[in-house]
Amino acid sequence: MLESVTSATRPTSGTISAGPAQDADRRGLPLRFTMSELVQRTGAPAATIRYYLSVGLLPPPVKVASNRYLYDERHVELVRIVRLLRERRGLSLEAIGRVLPEMLPDLLGRPSGVFRAEMWGDVLSPGAAGASTRERIVEIGAELFSRRGYAEVTVDDVCRAADMAKGSFYRQFTSKEELFLAVAGAVTRELSRTLGDLAARGPQEVERVVEALATAMMPRLAVVLDLTSLAAQRRTGYAAALSALVSALGEALRPVLGGAGGEADEVVARAVFEAVRRVVDTVGIDTAPSLTPLAGSARMTHE
Predict the structure, then answer these.
(1) Is residue 136 in a domain?
(2) Is residue 167 one of the residues assigned to a domain?
(3) For the packed helices 155-162 and 127-148, what is the interaxial angle rounded to 10 degrees?
(4) Is 95 left (phi over 0), alpha (psi -120 to 50) or beta?
(5) In the predicted model, is pLDDT for residue 138 greater than 80?
(6) Average pLDDT over residues 78-103
(7) Residue 156 in domain
(8) How far is CA 110 from CA 9, 107, 194, in A?
(9) Domain count, the chain
(10) Whether residue 106 sits in one domain with residue 194
(11) Could you list the residue range(s) of the whole structural domain that residue 226 is in?
(12) In terms of domains, do 99 and 191 share one?
C-alpha cells in the first residue's frame, strides 16, 4: 500500500547489535524501543500495530534478533496519526494509505519527526481554510461531473483541475463517491435557490415553471441523471441523496405553484425530460453519453 514509505525506510539485511536504547542514542542513531514500549506510548494494542505493519502503513522495524524487533519515533508518530485520521476524519485504512505519502515526504531523513507540524491543524480541525478547500473541490467536481459524467471522472482528474496533491483531496473526502454526493447536495441547493427566486414573483403557471426548472437544471443535468442511475442500482448513499433532491425541489415548488403540492413531482419529472430533450437536440446523443439512459424516453415524451 505504501511502497514509497516502506521502501524508503527498509532496513538492511541481517541484524544489528541489540544494545540498550540509550547506547544507540549516544551513537547518533534513532532512539529505539520494544513493542511493549510502543504500545505504552501510543495506547494502541499490539495487534493493531502489527496489522498496520502488515498492510504497509508503518515502516518495517529493525530486526535485532530472532523474533525480536525494535521501533523508533517514526512508529510512534505514524500510529498516532493513523488513529487520528480514523477517529477524527473517519478515513478507511485504504484511504489513509493514499494520504500518508503526501503527508510524509521524507521519512528517512527525518527519523524523529516524520509528520510535518503544519499538518496537525488539517487533521484535527480543518477550520476556515479546510472549509474553503472543500468548497473549491466541490465546485471543480461539479464542473467535471457535469461535463463528463460520473464514470468518466477520477480523483486524479479532480486533483489536476484543482492543482492540488491527492493528500489534500483525501483530507477532505474519502473517495470520489463521497465527493459526488457532496456535489449532488450542492446541485440540490442551486436548484432550490432558483425556484426560491421564482417564488418571490408569486405563483406561476405550470408550463413556465417547467421551462424555468429545465433551464436551471441543464448545466447540472449529468449530475442529476447519474444520481438517479446510481440510486436505481441501490448504491449506498445515492438513494438518500436523490430523495433529498426530490424532496427539496418539491418544497421549493409549492409556493411557485400556489400550494398545489400534488403537481410538484410531475413538474420535476417534466423538467428533467425537457432538459434532456434540449441537450439531445443541441449536441446529439453521441456526444452526450451520460444522457443515454433517458434520451429515448425524452424523445418519446417530446413526440
Answers:
(1) no
(2) no
(3) 120
(4) alpha
(5) yes
(6) 76
(7) no
(8) 11, 5, 53
(9) 2
(10) no
(11) 175-302
(12) no
